[in-house]
Amino acid sequence: MLRRTWEFFVLFNKEVFYNKIAFFWTLIIPIIFIVFNNLDWFLKYPDYSTFRHNISFYWCYMILITAINGVGVSILILRDNGFLKMFKFIARTKTPIIVGRICSQWLFTVVNIVIFTVVSSLLFRQPIFPLLSAIMVIAFIALLPVFLSFLWIGSLPYRQESVSPIFTILVFILIYL
Q1: Checking phi first, is residue 21 left (phi over 0); if not, alpha (psi -120 to 50) or beta?
Q2: Of 177, 40, 58, nearest in space to 118 by CA
Q3: Cβ distance 135 to 114 under 8 Å?
Q4: What's the pTM?
Q5: Do 106 and 28 contact (CB within 8 A), yes or no?
Q6: Contact predicate 71/101, CB 8 Å
Q7: Distance CA 171, CA 120 (A)
């Protein structure tokens, strides 16, 4: 089972890292928002606690976007397109498919959050290593339960065309919040 999970992990990594829209939503949008929402920080750099508090909201956004679109809706799309059934036929169970998807999205999220943290820390002259250590703790403790909590989206009895607009609206609400 471990080999099949690894193969799905590699397949889903190829998919997610070639998807430029996912990078836009999870990396470029937060960088743009942190710069424009905090233009005054270029004149007077924030203290570390203010910056850490502010950046944590962007981390939460990035984690939730990836959990909703990368895990929940993507499993729903696999089901609607028939790939989940085909992959299940190949792997004999859905477990390696789901674990491969979650591991792939975990790696994608960690890479995006690290890049975002480094860029924003350099822009606003903040210490990078304490933030990166906090990210690693979050990545190992919080990401898996969040990703698992959005697996229910894949089991909705609706088609992807019906569910995706609702979650797209939810993305805009998350951006606003």
Answers
A1: alpha
A2: 58
A3: yes
A4: 0.87
A5: no
A6: yes
A7: 22
Q: How far apart are CA 40 and CA 50, in angstroms?
A: 13
The phi, psi pair for 126, rounded to 5°, reads -115, 155
**Which residue is associated with the tokens 């890049």?**
115
pLDDT digits (tens, 9 = 90+) for 80-136: 888 777 777 777 888 888 999 999 999 999 999 999 999 999 999 999 999 999 999
Query: What gap in Å lies between CA 51 and CA 106, rounded to an integer?
Result: 24
CA distances for 46 relative to 54, 62, 106, 125, 130, angstroms: 10, 22, 30, 9, 16
Closest by CA position to 118, among listed 47, 57, 27:
27
State the residue for tokens 């820390």: 121
H or E, element range at 48 = helix 48-65
Can you read off the two tokens belonging to residue 122?
């350099």
